[in-house]
């Protein structure tokens, strides 16, 4: 598919005082095709949410570019910037914290419609009803407040709010992490249905590989601000090459206890190192059982190891 979003050498650094720099995103390059879902996976602190926020212009890159249909989103004039703000939306991890408790659901969904002046009066109201129905709620819900809903329903409200202004691209920032497992699948199915119906493009952020397989066409695995593996969802699960991806995959619980018992889990030892003043060489080396001398000196680059399958590891790309 033609790229809708093109991210080139993106860096986002934060000054954290005392001359220290936190390299949240450190040279990340990827693209998202029109109608595609790219999953972004990694432990907390790996920079995935920072990438998401930079894509919808909540953060400005320290370096690098983000193109939306060949236009650099940080070079847009005011009118174009407003258009982009309409086209690119975000769904948040905690549906409760992201919904104003003093506003009715109808007004929460209507807020974006008002800012962008898309529908007015009666049309505005019917648009809100239509959106509620689209996400599996009903029009009576418009006059109620967020606290009257369950976690899953609140996330449906968050999705309706994101859809209200007819976006093309949605950053889904761990939209299911705070929900019960039984509800997670419902929300993933809803997002997939909406994608088909409305021709949406997603970036789907998750902290593990358990649910992301079903929704993602391709998956990028992030570690300490960099992408360590990037390929199609099917290829990543059937033929992972990076030691970190393998560890993440082996951490997915399998519901069948017989299989679970016989499994060889790769345990990730130690915590994620700090992204402040990271070690030279491969950022994963302190936790990698294959680490070699070269891993201490040279940072591995993301290279194509087989068709459309990229990995950053000296083991495979020497
Ligand atoms: Fe492990 Fe070295 Fe590969 Fe890093 S580059 S993942 S330390 S083998």
TrEMBL record:
Keyword Ribosomal protein on entry: no
CDD domains: ABC_NikE_OppD_transporters
InterPro entries recorded: AAA+_ATPase (IPR003593), ABC_transp_ATP-bind (IPR050319), ABC_transporter-like_ATP-bd (IPR003439), ABC_transporter-like_CS (IPR017871), Oligopep_ABC_C (IPR013563), P-loop_NTPase (IPR027417)
A GO molecular function held by the record: ATP binding
Residues annotated as domain ABC transporter: 5-249
SUPFAM superfamilies attached to this UniProt entry: P-loop containing nucleoside triphosphate hydrolases
Entry keywords, A to Z: ATP-binding, Nucleotide-binding, Transport
Family membership: Belongs to the ABC transporter superfamily.
Protein name: ATP-binding cassette domain-containing protein
Organism of derivation: Lutispora saccharofermentans
């Amino acid at each position: 598919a033609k790229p809708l979003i093109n991210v080139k050498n993106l860096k986002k650094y934060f000054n954290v005082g005392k001359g220290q720099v936190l390299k949240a995103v450190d040279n990340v390059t990827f693209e998202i095709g029109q109608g595609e879902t790219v999953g972004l996976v990694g432990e907390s602190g790996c920079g995935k949410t920072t990438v998401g926020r930079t894509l919808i212009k909540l953060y400005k890159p320290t370096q690098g570019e983000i193109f939306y249909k060949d236009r650099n989103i940080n070079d847009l004039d005011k009118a174009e910037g407003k258009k982009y703000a309409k086209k690119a939306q975000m769904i948040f991890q905690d549906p409760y914290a992201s919904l104003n408790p003093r506003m009715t659901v109808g007004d929460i969904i209507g807020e974006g419609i008002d800012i962008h002046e898309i529908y007015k009066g009666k049309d505005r109201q019917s648009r809100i009803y239509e959106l509620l129905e689209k996400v599996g709620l009903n029009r009576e819900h418009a006059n109620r407040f967020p606290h009257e809903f369950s976690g899953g329903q609140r996330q449906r409200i968050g999705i309706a709010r994101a859809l209200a202004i007819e976006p093309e691209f949605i950053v889904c920032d761990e939209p299911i992490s705070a929900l019960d497992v039984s509800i997670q699948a419902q929300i993933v199915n809803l997002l997939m249905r909406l994608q088909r119906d409305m021709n949406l493009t997603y970036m789907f952020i998750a902290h593990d590989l358990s649910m992301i397989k079903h929704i993602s066409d391709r998956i990028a695995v992030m570690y300490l601000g960099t992408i360590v593996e990037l390929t199609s969802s099917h290829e990543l699960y059937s033929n992972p090459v990076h030691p970190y991806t393998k560890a993440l995959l082996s951490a997915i619980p399998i519901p069948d206890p017989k299989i679970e018992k016989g499994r060889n889990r790769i345990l990730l030892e130690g915590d994620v190192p700090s992204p402040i003043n990271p070690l030279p060489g491969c950022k994963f080396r302190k936790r990698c059982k294959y680490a070699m001398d070269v891993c201490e000196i040279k940072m591995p680059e993301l290279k194509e190891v087989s068709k459309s399958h990229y990995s950053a590891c000296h083991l495979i790309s020497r």
